[in-house]
Predict the 3D structure of the following.
Amino acid sequence: AQSVTQLGSHVSVSEGALVLLRCNYSSSVPPYLFWYVQYPNQGLQLLLKYTSAATLVKGINGFEAEFKKSETSFHLTKPSAHMSDAAEYFCALSGAGTALIFGKGTTLSVSS
Amino acid sequence: NAGVTQTPKFRVLKTGQSMTLLCAQDMNHEYMYWYRQDPGMGLRLIHYSVGEGTTAKGEVPDGYNVSRLKKQNFLLGLESAAPSQTSVYFCASKREDSSPLHFGNGTRLTVT
């Protein structure tokens, strides 16, 4: 069975502060892991993906995530938040032959 | 290059009416998916297809049917709409197992 858990439905940071969005997963097969971002009234855009190459994955807009098998985690980070980062973020998981499943999402708010 | 196109963008139905949502992709992708997004629930998989002529049930398939007669199109049907089907529906496609999903911009459906 596969599952994705995003810890914290809402995260608030100040502009310039570290962004940390948490994602834990459970998978019976080697996972492919993704982070997507959704801006209001839009579809989802891919931020980054892990597909068993480097464990530290760099994405767009300065985001990165680290795959930690021992902790079954794939947390998303950004060193310095911008106002434009305010959006909803989704962690997602698939495996060979399985459909992509999503966590419930984390809304990131950025204050000036 | 249009990517994934969903029609219509908005629709209001009365309980018991039927409708079909169309998803078209021009990337020659094998895999196509229908998700629904509800507040606090993330994206939940309704049905998916791993190739032309194939379909499979996802997490929440009841009340929906799908067809994939042509590789580029994936249709989602509601035979008898219910208020519980009020949601935003997203179609997505991908090339292969480890590929990320490409999303359409969504269809906002309201059932009264």
Q: What stands out?
A: Chain A has a mean pLDDT of 93.
